[in-house]
Amino acid sequence: MVGCSGTCETPDTSALCRHAVLWRNGAVFDLGGLGGAINNYPVVINNAGQIAGISGPPGDATTYAVLWQNGAITNLGALPGDVLSVTQDMNAKGQVVGSSCDASFNCRAFLWDKGVMIDLNSLIPPKSPLYLTVAEGINDRGEISGNAVLKSNPNDLRAFLAIPAPAAQIAGDSAPKITLPANIRASLQRRLRLRHFGDRPTAQQ
After folding, report:
1. Which of 25, 32, 165, 179 is least enclosed by beta carbons within 10 angstroms?
2. 175 Cβ partners below 8 Å, 6+ apart?
3. Residue-range domain boundaries for the chain
Protein backbone atom coordinates (compact mmCIF):
# COMPACT_ATOMS: atom_id res chain seq x y z
CA MET A 1 0.00 0.00 0.00
CA VAL A 2 1.19 3.55 -0.71
CA GLY A 3 0.16 6.89 0.74
CA CYS A 4 1.55 9.93 2.46
CA SER A 5 2.31 11.20 5.94
CA GLY A 6 1.95 14.85 6.81
CA THR A 7 -0.06 17.64 8.39
CA CYS A 8 -3.39 16.70 9.96
CA GLU A 9 -5.93 18.78 8.02
CA THR A 10 -8.71 18.25 5.50
CA PRO A 11 -6.86 16.23 2.82
CA ASP A 12 -8.02 18.13 -0.26
CA THR A 13 -4.51 18.92 -1.45
CA SER A 14 -1.22 17.11 -1.80
CA ALA A 15 0.54 20.09 -0.20
CA LEU A 16 -0.20 18.41 3.13
CA CYS A 17 1.92 15.40 2.15
CA ARG A 18 5.40 15.77 3.65
CA HIS A 19 6.49 12.15 3.17
CA ALA A 20 5.64 9.64 0.45
CA VAL A 21 5.41 6.24 2.13
CA LEU A 22 5.13 2.57 1.30
CA TRP A 23 3.49 0.14 3.75
CA ARG A 24 4.81 -3.40 3.33
CA ASN A 25 4.85 -6.42 5.62
CA GLY A 26 3.71 -4.38 8.60
CA ALA A 27 6.33 -1.65 8.25
CA VAL A 28 6.29 1.87 6.79
CA PHE A 29 9.09 3.06 4.50
CA ASP A 30 9.78 6.66 3.47
CA LEU A 31 10.14 6.68 -0.33
CA GLY A 32 11.95 9.99 -0.41
CA GLY A 33 11.37 12.67 -3.02
CA LEU A 34 12.95 15.33 -5.23
CA GLY A 35 13.92 17.50 -2.25
CA GLY A 36 10.80 19.55 -1.61
CA ALA A 37 9.12 19.65 1.80
CA ILE A 38 5.53 19.23 0.52
CA ASN A 39 3.63 17.60 -2.37
CA ASN A 40 5.33 14.22 -1.88
CA TYR A 41 2.43 11.98 -2.80
CA PRO A 42 2.42 8.43 -4.23
CA VAL A 43 -0.73 7.82 -6.26
CA VAL A 44 -0.58 4.21 -7.45
CA ILE A 45 1.47 1.00 -7.16
CA ASN A 46 1.40 -1.85 -9.68
CA ASN A 47 2.12 -5.56 -9.26
CA ALA A 48 5.74 -5.03 -10.33
CA GLY A 49 6.25 -2.77 -7.32
CA GLN A 50 6.57 0.40 -9.41
CA ILE A 51 5.08 3.44 -7.67
CA ALA A 52 3.92 6.57 -9.50
CA GLY A 53 3.01 9.88 -7.91
CA ILE A 54 4.22 13.44 -7.52
CA SER A 55 7.07 15.23 -5.79
CA GLY A 56 8.70 18.64 -5.95
CA PRO A 57 12.24 20.01 -5.98
CA PRO A 58 13.77 22.07 -3.15
CA GLY A 59 11.83 25.30 -2.62
CA ASP A 60 8.45 23.75 -3.46
CA ALA A 61 7.93 26.13 -6.37
CA THR A 62 6.58 23.37 -8.60
CA THR A 63 5.56 19.70 -8.68
CA TYR A 64 6.40 16.88 -11.08
CA ALA A 65 5.09 13.43 -11.88
CA VAL A 66 7.59 10.88 -10.59
CA LEU A 67 8.22 7.15 -10.65
CA TRP A 68 9.74 5.18 -7.78
CA GLN A 69 11.31 1.85 -8.66
CA ASN A 70 14.24 -0.25 -7.47
CA GLY A 71 14.89 2.17 -4.63
CA ALA A 72 15.29 5.20 -6.91
CA ILE A 73 13.07 8.10 -7.96
CA THR A 74 12.74 9.32 -11.56
CA ASN A 75 11.44 12.79 -12.40
CA LEU A 76 9.11 12.37 -15.38
CA GLY A 77 9.32 16.09 -16.13
CA ALA A 78 6.70 18.13 -17.98
CA LEU A 79 5.74 18.73 -21.59
CA PRO A 80 7.59 21.53 -23.46
CA GLY A 81 6.48 24.97 -22.26
CA ASP A 82 4.90 23.57 -19.07
CA VAL A 83 6.17 23.97 -15.50
CA LEU A 84 4.45 21.15 -13.60
CA SER A 85 2.96 17.71 -14.03
CA VAL A 86 0.70 15.44 -11.99
CA THR A 87 0.33 11.65 -12.04
CA GLN A 88 -3.18 10.19 -12.13
CA ASP A 89 -2.64 6.48 -12.84
CA MET A 90 -0.23 3.76 -13.97
CA ASN A 91 -0.73 0.29 -15.45
CA ALA A 92 1.12 -3.02 -15.11
CA LYS A 93 3.49 -2.04 -17.93
CA GLY A 94 4.69 1.05 -16.04
CA GLN A 95 2.91 3.45 -18.40
CA VAL A 96 1.95 6.60 -16.48
CA VAL A 97 -0.81 9.09 -17.31
CA GLY A 98 -1.77 12.46 -15.90
CA SER A 99 -1.66 16.16 -16.71
CA SER A 100 1.08 18.60 -17.65
CA CYS A 101 0.33 22.28 -17.06
CA ASP A 102 1.81 25.73 -17.48
CA ALA A 103 1.92 28.24 -14.60
CA SER A 104 -1.65 29.37 -15.37
CA PHE A 105 -2.99 25.77 -15.30
CA ASN A 106 -3.53 25.42 -19.01
CA CYS A 107 -3.28 21.62 -18.78
CA ARG A 108 -3.04 18.81 -21.29
CA ALA A 109 -3.21 15.06 -20.84
CA PHE A 110 0.04 13.12 -21.06
CA LEU A 111 1.22 9.53 -21.46
CA TRP A 112 4.69 8.63 -20.14
CA ASP A 113 6.06 5.49 -21.75
CA LYS A 114 9.58 4.08 -21.87
CA GLY A 115 11.19 7.29 -20.65
CA VAL A 116 9.26 9.70 -22.88
CA MET A 117 6.37 12.02 -21.95
CA ILE A 118 3.90 12.42 -24.82
CA ASP A 119 1.09 14.95 -25.27
CA LEU A 120 -1.97 12.76 -25.82
CA ASN A 121 -3.40 15.43 -28.10
CA SER A 122 -0.62 14.55 -30.56
CA LEU A 123 -1.82 10.94 -30.72
CA ILE A 124 -5.46 11.58 -31.65
CA PRO A 125 -6.75 12.61 -35.09
CA PRO A 126 -5.97 16.30 -35.77
CA LYS A 127 -9.61 16.89 -36.72
CA SER A 128 -10.90 15.61 -33.38
CA PRO A 129 -13.24 18.15 -31.75
CA LEU A 130 -11.71 17.38 -28.36
CA TYR A 131 -8.74 18.84 -26.48
CA LEU A 132 -7.60 16.35 -23.84
CA THR A 133 -6.81 18.03 -20.51
CA VAL A 134 -6.54 15.22 -17.93
CA ALA A 135 -5.74 11.54 -18.38
CA GLU A 136 -7.39 9.94 -15.35
CA GLY A 137 -6.85 6.21 -15.86
CA ILE A 138 -5.00 3.64 -17.96
CA ASN A 139 -5.58 -0.11 -18.08
CA ASP A 140 -3.17 -2.89 -19.00
CA ARG A 141 -4.32 -2.73 -22.65
CA GLY A 142 -3.19 0.90 -22.80
CA GLU A 143 -6.73 2.29 -23.02
CA ILE A 144 -6.88 5.73 -21.41
CA SER A 145 -9.87 7.54 -19.94
CA GLY A 146 -10.04 11.14 -18.85
CA ASN A 147 -11.47 14.58 -19.38
CA ALA A 148 -11.47 16.94 -22.31
CA VAL A 149 -12.97 20.19 -23.54
CA LEU A 150 -14.45 21.03 -26.93
CA LYS A 151 -12.01 23.02 -29.05
CA SER A 152 -14.91 25.11 -30.32
CA ASN A 153 -16.17 25.82 -26.79
CA PRO A 154 -13.58 25.17 -24.05
CA ASN A 155 -16.26 25.64 -21.38
CA ASP A 156 -17.92 22.43 -22.58
CA LEU A 157 -16.43 19.53 -20.60
CA ARG A 158 -16.46 15.99 -21.97
CA ALA A 159 -15.23 12.53 -20.91
CA PHE A 160 -13.03 10.59 -23.34
CA LEU A 161 -11.76 7.07 -23.94
CA ALA A 162 -8.59 6.75 -26.02
CA ILE A 163 -7.85 3.32 -27.52
CA PRO A 164 -4.34 2.65 -28.87
CA ALA A 165 -4.09 2.61 -32.66
CA PRO A 166 -1.44 0.93 -34.85
CA ALA A 167 1.73 3.00 -35.14
CA ALA A 168 0.91 3.90 -38.74
CA GLN A 169 -2.21 5.70 -37.57
CA ILE A 170 -0.52 7.91 -34.96
CA ALA A 171 -1.14 11.56 -35.77
CA GLY A 172 2.26 13.06 -35.06
CA ASP A 173 4.57 14.40 -32.38
CA SER A 174 3.07 17.83 -31.76
CA ALA A 175 -0.32 19.46 -31.30
CA PRO A 176 -1.39 23.11 -30.91
CA LYS A 177 -1.79 24.13 -27.27
CA ILE A 178 -5.04 25.75 -26.17
CA THR A 179 -5.50 28.54 -23.62
CA LEU A 180 -8.32 27.39 -21.39
CA PRO A 181 -10.98 29.65 -19.82
CA ALA A 182 -10.19 30.90 -16.30
CA ASN A 183 -12.92 28.81 -14.67
CA ILE A 184 -11.66 25.63 -16.32
CA ARG A 185 -8.09 26.37 -15.23
CA ALA A 186 -9.27 26.97 -11.65
CA SER A 187 -11.20 23.70 -11.74
CA LEU A 188 -8.13 21.83 -12.98
CA GLN A 189 -6.02 23.29 -10.19
CA ARG A 190 -8.49 21.99 -7.60
CA ARG A 191 -8.96 18.67 -9.32
CA LEU A 192 -5.26 17.97 -9.51
CA ARG A 193 -5.02 18.42 -5.72
CA LEU A 194 -2.73 21.43 -6.12
CA ARG A 195 -5.03 23.96 -4.46
CA HIS A 196 -2.07 25.27 -2.49
CA PHE A 197 0.34 25.09 -5.42
CA GLY A 198 3.57 26.88 -4.52
CA ASP A 199 2.76 27.12 -0.80
CA ARG A 200 5.73 26.92 1.54
CA PRO A 201 5.40 24.87 4.71
CA THR A 202 5.66 26.70 8.01
CA ALA A 203 7.79 23.99 9.55
CA GLN A 204 9.60 20.91 8.31
CA GLN A 205 8.23 17.67 9.71
Report:
1. 25
2. 119, 121, 122, 126
3. 2-191
